[in-house]
Every structure is written in C-alpha cells, then in structure tokens.
Amino acid sequence: MSNAEKVISGGASSSSHSVFGEGTATEASDEFTVTTEEEGECDNGHIACSACCTNLRNRCPSCTLPIGVYRNRMMERVVEAIIVPCPNAKHGCTEMFSYGKELVHEKECSFALCYCPRRGCNYAGLCKDLYRHYYNCSSAREYFRCGYNVQAWMHISDKILVLQEGREGPLVAIQCFEEEQGVYVTVNCITPCAPGVSEFSFQLSYSSYGGAHKTMSFGLGEMNRIQKVSFQTPDKDFMFVPHYFLAGRTDLKMNICVRRRGGEEEEENT
Fold first, then answer.
1. Which of 27, 43, 109, 135 is spaced 20 to 30 Å from 145 by Cα?
2. Model confidence over 118-129: pLDDT tens digits?
3. In the chain, which ranges are continuous DSSP H helix?
4. 69: confidence class by pLDDT, cuts 50, 70, 90
5. Cβ pair 44, 65 in contact under 8 A
6. Confidence bin at 13 (pLDDT 50/70/90)
C-alpha cells in the first residue's frame, strides 16, 4: 500500500468531520479553517479548485450547492504522502521529496544542467562535464588563478569574455552591455547554486586611457552563480563605465582578481 493510500484509508474512519463525510456546515467549521488555499468544498464533500469556484460563482460543479474556500487537511495529507524524485534524477540526483518541495531543492541541486557560454554552442551538461567540454570546445582560452590579478581585456562588441580556472576548471563569464550612457559590466560563475560548489568572490577594476588616468573598481564578496549566460542588460550587481571614461575607445582594459571563498589564497591576503 502506498503512502497516499495509507493516508486515505486512515482518514476515512477518523471522524464524521472527514472531507469525505456528510457533515453539516456547522460540523465542518470544527474541522476546517477558512483560508485562501486553492480548494473549495461543498456540504456534500465535493471538491473544486479555486479557479472553478470563481468561474461557477461559488456553486459546486457536481451538486450546485454553495461552495466555499476551506483548508482541506485530508488532501494536504494525501499530497504530503506523495514522494517524488528530484527533477534532476535523470542526471544523477538521488534525493526524494514530498510533492512540491522538490521545486525548492531544484534551485540548489548540484546536478542541475549548465550551458556552454560559447556562441553557437548548444551543449548542456553537469558543471564538471561542461568545464571539460569548454576546454576542448574553445580555441581562444583565457585563464584565471585564484588570488592573482589577471588581465581581462575585451572588445565591447564581443559582449562576453570567459575565463577558466586552469584546465577544465570553473568558468567565470565577464559580460558587457552597451547602453546610451555607458557600458554595464557583470561577473558571474557558470555553476549551479548548490552549497559549496564554486563559491568565489572577486574584485574587478577598469583603467581609462590617455593623460587623465582614471580608474574604477567593483567587487562582490560572493560572486553570482548562473547556469546560463543572459544577454539582457542587468539591473543589479554591475560596474558602470560611462562613455566619457571610454574616450571613444571600443574596448575595455580591465583586471580581475578572483578568490575562492574561505580558501587558503583568501586567508593569506587578509
């Protein structure tokens, strides 16, 4: 017998207040609390979703009796007893959850797929597989080493510069978005948002050209992690370089220092 079947069989004999009983409206008020849950029930125990209740003007679709929105505790128990696998089970995740709770886990699952940032490539795989793929897929490779400043020079028209930590290591995407007033620059690590997976901080700096030397810097104590690069102008977590800083140039001369959060190279430099 499944968990859901046990819940149903156990609840059917519990009391006259069961959702499957014939209790009166007075009796039902002892069992149910009026809430904004997504279910309605009439006095005959018929159930309808909140959308149907609204469309039918709060009349039961089965018997036309008035139907209200009540908390259906029996159905909640049935749903909670349904155990489902993680949506990433086919990729190797073995976690199991009560129905609905798997969606929360999916956002932090280490088996979530990541997508290749190289233009024209549609590869998607686990992050470690993606890193190996990118090393073999990209002909123009740029690297970073945690705790060290490295050059991050890019043409604005390229829109993206990908740095890899050594051979087959994590990928850091530096992207630029040109708008009317200047250029937005973001830094993200391509990896799932799983605890302990590729957790970095960074410091990015830009230096202007010409006699009036100007610099600006931007950093985050926790680098954002993404599964797929986006080419939409960001609304947060960016460095903004005004056009007057660029002085007509079409490239960005930047330096970046990436640190592993809690890593040895970070402790040595504090």
1. 109
2. 988 999 999 999
3. 3-12, 25-31, 50-55, 73-81, 102-106, 127-137, 243-246, 264-268
4. low
5. yes
6. very low
